[in-house]
């Protein structure tokens, strides 16, 4: 052809795809593959490109991996179902965005497990990439399949598919592991896995056996158990200096800089708040410096200050004031996680540089009693003050986020959600006739490594009843009330607390055609139920059963640093609706990190 | 303001970046290059960047046009070099000229575009030519020639009649099934000279 790009065998497929820019990638940044590398890793994100490129983790790990001697990194994303069908019909393998190299031709694949509903996509990527789905079926020539991220800390559902789980911060877990895999390239696969199992921060499921009895799951191995999660203590040392910028728009199309990792608020439902402990802050000077540098390097016109609770950053006000001059260059700053108080709302509105997008507040529960049960630490007064501040600053729409199906929840608590929304609308009307309250209620999914890991998830029928119960009570036309469908939450609940046996149902669901479970347009409960039935798995046993306090859980062999004793103590306190104060403002709560060098365990930094 | 008009190409996978995303992309390229772009007036100011006629996704181009209003004092050549040094793969600025502020808007500068078209099944080329000539007529497509590797054709009013119209017509006529069956590139944009039966490029 006159134009060489038309000779690329991918071109006709991309031209026929629903969303071509997911596959035909044009980017700014250092993405050129090294000509020579002893170990080629492909970071694999089990969702489409525009979602995967919005994930900060790969932006952090990709350049650090490319900087390692003899090691190179590329990226791959899960093709949407139309492209999957085209790849299969044209017998083309899934490859990386940088070189198109097929996944089977890499030395290692590194999946991130951000949530359970992406699990079927991992199987799609392996299969399309020419890699055997089951770890046991892989030979010496196949890539080593790695997986990290939050769901790697509750790994058993995926144990049959992953060679090595990476536990903790990739910045510290990956370099020695990748160096080991580089140095042992060419050796028998089993020997390499055994060597990897000797490293801290790894979990090689094929070298750990599990037995089941009425008391739970019991793990045994010649390697040390439990497997300990590793953390990076010096956040300044791992601050990014570059990011990749897609030419096409993505979901989070902006610079993102972490203020700190971890959260000590202790919300009992929140897995991230438990598994990313302890809190490790960056210095404000470094954050400011990196934001300015990244704005220049990327050209992005917006910067997001990301953390689990960004407003808890002690120097947040000073930092925002220091960033204010960027506004003259058209740059905006956003805070993605606003605390429910007037301080945070004032902060979000107070400076010209702050992006005035939609305002979302998350009271999580509708009554003070239930907020105490979940240790949310938000009072009605906090909420009223936040709403008052929001409307006073000119916001006309406020989104309120709640959960239903929380432990100990009653219909009065649910009515409290509606009452709270009505009160918010009333506060809004005092400021503007256009006040709009958008209420979103999601079904609660209990997760491992949290104080609610023992509780039963509500049934689909119960969640449907609760949603309908609340919606019927809404009177104000200023309130838009939506509750999530419970079918996806149910499957998420099964996968989130599954053991190795659930992996068989996962495989079967994938064979039946299950893809992109977090997308309602592709999710099918029927397929999942069929898969559970044909593999003899009772999903309700995993999701809707109260576990005994002393049950041996399928994630007990993973040590996040937060002790099971602390989680149980918090669970018991929740049953008495007792709150536990944030250890950064109160005394140490002995979560487990006090024995491992938590900066706040002495009551002060 | 320093108004600079660019000719740029979209090669490689860049043709799959949507036309509507280009002003934001160019604003980001300019920021990376250390060039300050003026903002538009109004409620939500945006970088003052104007693009030429839209090009559908999947069409290669050797001749796209844009104008950027820089606050930075920079020569067209410097601007082009800096923009090229900070562009993502597939985008390359080929020409740049300074334009007086009161010059007519970019999109009034064209009335024709030249395209190269080749069906994936090269044996269909002659039939495609015949179909386009019959279906579109000289009012829309005043020129269409067979070349060694496909067709070169001129379309009038590029804002209204572009590759989308070509593909739509060929699909309706049953000549191709859709975009995957045809390769199209824009070769030039400018004024149609009926006397010479050619397009005079903008720059």
What is the 3D form of chain A?
A: globular
Counting DSSP H or I runs of 4 or more residues, the number of helices of chain A is: 20
The ordered H/E elements of chain B are EHEEHEEHEEHEE
Q: Please give the count of helices of chain B.
A: 4
CATH architecture of the largest domain in chain A: Alpha-Beta Barrel
Instruction: Tell me the major beta sheet of chain A.
Output: 6 strands, mixed
- Average pLDDT of chain A, to the nearest integer? 95
Can you characterise this structure?
The complex is a heterodimer of chains A (605) and B (203). With 605 residues, chain A is of the alpha/beta class. Chain A has 2 domains: 4-228, Rossmann fold; 254-484 and 563-575, Aldolase class I (TIM Barrel, Alpha-Beta Barrel). Chain A has 20 helices and 21 strands. The longest helix of chain A has 21 residues, at 411-431. Chain B is an alpha+beta fold and 203 residues long. The longest helix of chain B is centred in the middle third of the chain and has 16 residues, at 125-140. Chain B folds into 2 domains: 2-108, Alpha-Beta Plaits (2-Layer Sandwich), CATH 3.30.70; 112-201, Alpha-Beta Plaits. In chain B, strands 1, 2, 3, 4, 5, 6, 7, 8 and 9 form a 9-stranded mixed β-sheet that branches. The chains are: A alpha/beta (605), B alpha+beta (203). Chain A binds chain B through residues 1-3, 5-6, 11-16, 20-21, 23-28, 245-249, 295-301, 329-330, and chain B through 11-18, 21, 24-25, 27-32, 34, 36, 39, 45, 47, 57-58, 60, 86-91, 116, 118, 120, 149-150, 178-181, 183, 185.
